[in-house]
Specification:
It contains 1 helix and 10 strands. With 159 residues, the protein is mostly beta strands. It has a 10-stranded antiparallel sheet with strand order 6-5-4-3-2-1-10-9-8-7, with helices on one face. The longest helix is centred in the C-terminal third of the chain and has 7 residues.
């Protein structure tokens, strides 16, 4: 894997608080981001670092993704917003998510995790339940593809 990589992250949040039987719409928020990033491997752990610019806000968020084997992923955000989310299969972890508007206690209950690593690609899928201040909020899915600059897919995604 080269130092220069392209990160594709897609996420889906399905609001579990909404009840269509009671006249509420079911929420379904999807995001997709493709951005250049830096990659390095240290002591068998994979690190991906990139900056995120938020629409309508000054400043950026520095994102660091740490992949340890096939059973632990950490997403650390610092800057305008900050958090340290830990995903471990069949385990619930909590963290504070700090925003310019205040902070929230976030619970992440990882239901399933798949990590595939080869010479030019890392593919990750995570299914988890999200709660905010101990209230169930959403069922979520994250899919991450980290592609080395040397991979033919890199050229296609970066153009």
């Amino acid at each position: 894997m080269t130092k220069d990589v392209l990160v594709s992250i897609s996420g889906k949040h399905i609001d579990i608080m909404n009840d269509p039987a009671q006249g509420f719409e079911t929420g379904d928020d999807s995001i997709e981001v493709v951005t250049p990033a830096n990659y390095y491997c240290k002591n068998g752990k994979h690190y991906i670092i990139y900056d995120e610019v938020l629409e309508g806000m000054a400043g950026t968020i520095r994102n660091k993704i740490k992949i340890t084997g096939t059973d632990s992923i950490e997403i650390m955000k610092s800057g305008v917003s900050s958090s340290h989310m830990i995903f471990e299969k069949n385990k619930k972890n909590q963290t504070y998510y700090r925003t310019p508007y205040g902070q929230m206690l976030i619970g992440v209950n990882t239901k399933n995790m798949e990590v595939s690593v080869n010479d030019d690609k890392i593919n990750v899928r995570v299914d988890y339940e999200l709660d905010v201040n101990h209230e169930p909020m959403a069922d979520c899915k994250i899919k991450m593809n980290i592609i080395s600059k040397g991979d033919p897919e890199f050229t296609v995604l970066s153009s």
